Structure formats: structure tokens, C-alpha cells
Amino acid sequence: MTTIVTHNGYFHTDDLFAVAVLLMKFPGATVLRTRDEEKITQADIVVDVGRINDPKKLRFDHHQAEGAGVRGNGIPYASVGLVWKEFGAELAGEPTEVAIVEEKLIMPIDAGDNGVELYTLNNEDITPYTIGEYFDSYIEDAQTMEEYDAGFFQALPIAQDLIRKEISHAKRLAADWKEVAEIYDSTEKKDIIILPINKSWKKVLIPSQAKFVIFPRP
After folding, report:
1. Facing residues of 118 across strands?
2. 176: how many CB neighbours lie within 10 A of its CB?
3. CB–CB of 104/166 below 8 Å?
4. Most buried by CB count within 10 Å: which residue of 77, 164, 184, 197?
């Protein structure tokens, strides 16, 4: 049986979601939370611990001194980003879907774990309620390793469900964009585009937002 190892004690959204993604790729795998070096070495997959980033060996950690790489937009990879980079295409499908999930869910988690601020506050007294704060609620009263483990495994299916929902949402968006692009291309006069109701269209028809649209134009 496949064994996935991550660290024990306090968890963050990056290791939680990294394990959630891995369980989608390896359903039925056993998850072990430990810092025991021997168990880490013997594990089939290691995430967010071990100080090795080697996807070919199924090692996904970003805590080594040199880190684990930085995206073109400046957001460094954390554990979930490394796992998604390896398995996202297999789980989500086409490049558009992978990119949608990457930007909406994966990058913000990686940014938060690496201390990268994604926004500035308009009101210093009011901050957004984040996904990290939500999952922190599962362990806010934890005092022992067992209680941290209990919180992790209670939160894990919630994280899995969220990933599945975001993949499903990405597929719907990508299908909408493809349909809108086809309608645009087949419309002779481009000043008025008639679309079916409830179709996502802005990223196709507004150039400044079209960074995910990979459908070729004539």
C-alpha cells in the first residue's frame, strides 16, 4: 500500500492540500504524519518535510535553503504547488483547467505559506477571512500531537471536496470560454456578440482579462 508522509504537529493549508491532491492521484494511500527520519526515508511519497524536492522520487518539500523554485509572477512554490505542478494536468485535464485551479486556489496557498502578500488593505482594521484561517479553526484548541493529527484528518476530506469543486468549476469555465470563442469567431460583425445565457465571457472578450484563453484566433 502506498504511504504518504507529511510532518506532524501544526499544519498549514499547503501540506493539507498537498496531501488532499495526492490522495486524488493515489486513492487508498495511507497518510502518516511524522518527523521520524527513518519513516520519512521509507515512505513512498513525502510532502512538506524531508528537505528534498525531487518529483521523480515523489519528494515534494520546499524548506531547503534554496527553496523549490519560483513562478514567473514571483510566487515561490510551497508543497501543494509542487504536487499540483506534477499531477495537476492528470487530475484537472487540459492546460486551461489546470491554470484556473492553479491561480484561484494553489497559488494563494503557496503565497501565504511563503509569506508573500497578494493584496494591500484599504482599511487597516478589516482584513479578508482567509482559507488558512478557516482550516486553522480545526486545531485552534489543539495541545497534543494527537489533537493536531485529529484536526488534520478532520479537515482533509473538506480540502479534498474543495479541490474537486474547483476542478469541476474550472472545467465549466473552460467549456464556456471555448464556446464563447467559437461564437465570436463565427460572428461576422464583432461589435455585437450574442451569447447564450449564463456563459462566462469576460476572459474571452475583454483582452486585459484573457490570460487563460488559449484558443487560437484566425
Report:
1. none
2. 18
3. yes
4. 77
Q: What is the pLDDT of residues 5-36, one digit of tens each?
A: 999 999 999 999 999 999 999 999 999 999 99
Identify the three-state secondary structure at position 78: coil
DSSP helix/strand/coil, 161: helix
Residue type at 16 in one-letter notation: L
Which whole number is the average pLDDT over 118-125? Answer: 88
Over residues 171-209, the pLDDT tens digits come to 999 988 888 888 878 787 777 777 777 777 777 777 655
- Which pTM value belongs to this model? 0.88
List the Cα angle 188/194/197 in 5-degree steps: 155
State the residue for C-alpha cell 465570436. Answer: 184
Sheet containing 3-6, strands listed edge to edge, beginning at the edge strand earlier in sequence: 30-33, 3-6, 45-47, 59-60, 53-54
